[in-house]
């Protein structure tokens, strides 16, 4: 079993490393240098020489300086129903069916609890920058409740996140940040201007339905049920976002 786990982690590491931004030239990505570019619904992420993974209740830390032989160095119990993980600078955000958890990973082998924000039971991906965290809640047969919402938290005081905005959506799932825009996978691909994060303004909808998105090197990769679509935009004008290719699988 350990050999299977090591092999799986090695493959996952290689896949994520293909999305690493070695020179931090992608101004749209809020992640810092050396972080694997996963989506908001990812269950593992690379940060420097470490791979972080989540299961239903724990955060697992692996040292991967030797990618062929990752070494597990820690396991931290977060809570129940953990679903997603997202990294920004020295912060790690875990989304669960019951809330958002924030950990400090400035000591990469010893994640330290900072705070959490609880909500009604629903599936919960999260993305963040240095001041705000954006959470989508959606309901289905496994997550329960009839809750389909975008929530915005002020995390200027990361030990005390404050809910500053909440709005109903149709069925929001993955999301991403690009400059002053928040992109949400809902019944359409929706783009919000977050110049005022307390009042995001819907400025564009694209008639595509996706589960999650990743922005890397000025390309937006959108992942559907059986399709990956690439979008590009004109320099300096994200609202010119246009599909350029589809890959079915």
The CATH topology is: Methylamine Dehydrogenase, Chain H
Quickly count the helices. Answer: 1
Q: What is the count of structural domains? A: 1
- Provide the helix percentage: under 10%
- Oligomeric form of this entry? single chain
Structural class label: mainly beta
Could you give the count of β-strands?
A: 20
* Fraction of residues in β-strands: over 45%
Main-sheet strand order equals 1-2-3-4
Rg over alpha carbons = 17 Å
CATH superfamily: YVTN repeat-like/Quinoprotein amine dehydrogenase
The gross shape turns out to be globular
| Average residue-wise pLDDT | 85
Termini separation comes to 29 Å
CATH class: Mainly Beta
CATH-derived architecture: 7 Propeller
Low-confidence stretches: 1-34
Main sheet attributes: strand count, strand direction, barrel closure: 4 strands, antiparallel
Describe this protein's structure.
This protein has 249 residues and is mostly beta strands. It has one domain (2-248): YVTN repeat-like/Quinoprotein amine dehydrogenase (Methylamine Dehydrogenase, Chain H), CATH 2.130.10. 6% of the residues lie in helices and 48% in strands. It contains one helix and 20 strands. The chain has one helix at residues 2-17, and strands at residues 44-47, 50-54, 58-63, 71-77, 82-88, 91-96, 99-104, 112-118, 126-128, 132-137, 149-154, 162-168, 175-178, 181-185, 189-193, 201-206, 212-216, 219-223, 227-234, 237-248. The strands form five sheets. It has a four-stranded antiparallel β-sheet, covered by helices on one side. A four-stranded antiparallel β-sheet has the order 5-6-7-8, with no helix packed on it. A four-stranded antiparallel β-sheet has the order 9-10-11-12, with no helix packed on it. Strand 18 (219-223) and strand 19 form a beta hairpin. The longest helix is centred in the N-terminal third of the chain and has 16 residues, at 2-17. It is globular and about 45 Å long. The two termini are 29 Å apart. Mean pLDDT is 85; it is low at 1-34.
């Amino acid at each position: 079993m350990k050999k299977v786990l090591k092999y799986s982690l090695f493959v996952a590491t290689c896949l994520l490393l293909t999305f690493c931004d070695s020179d931090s030239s992608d101004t749209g990505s809020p992640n810092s240098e050396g972080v694997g570019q996963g989506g908001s619904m990812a269950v593992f992420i690379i940060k420097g020489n470490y791979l972080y993974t989540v299961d239903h209740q724990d955060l697992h830390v692996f040292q991967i300086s030797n990618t062929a032989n990752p070494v597990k160095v820690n396991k931290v119990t977060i809570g129940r129903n953990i679903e997603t993980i997202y990294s920004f600078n020295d912060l790690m955000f875990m989304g669960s069916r019951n809330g958002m958890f924030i950990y400090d990973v400035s000591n990469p082998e010893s994640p330290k609890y900072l705070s959490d924000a609880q909500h009604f039971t629903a599936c919960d991906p999260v993305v963040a920058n240095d001041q705000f965290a954006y959470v989508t809640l959606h309901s289905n047969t496994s997550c329960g409740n009839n809750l389909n919402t975008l929530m915005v938290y002020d995390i200027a005081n990361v030990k005390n996140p404050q809910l500053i905005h909440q709005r109903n959506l149709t069925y929001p799932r993955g999301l991403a940040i690009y400059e002053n825009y928040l992109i949400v996978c809902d019944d359409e691909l929706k783009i919000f201007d977050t110049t005022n994060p307390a009042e995001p303004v819907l400025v564009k909808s694209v008639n595509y339905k996706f589960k999650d998105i990743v922005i890397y090197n000025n390309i937006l990769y959108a992942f559907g049920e059986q399709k990956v679509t690439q979008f590009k935009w004109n320099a300096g004008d994200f609202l010119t976002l246009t599909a350029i290719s589809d890959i079915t699988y």
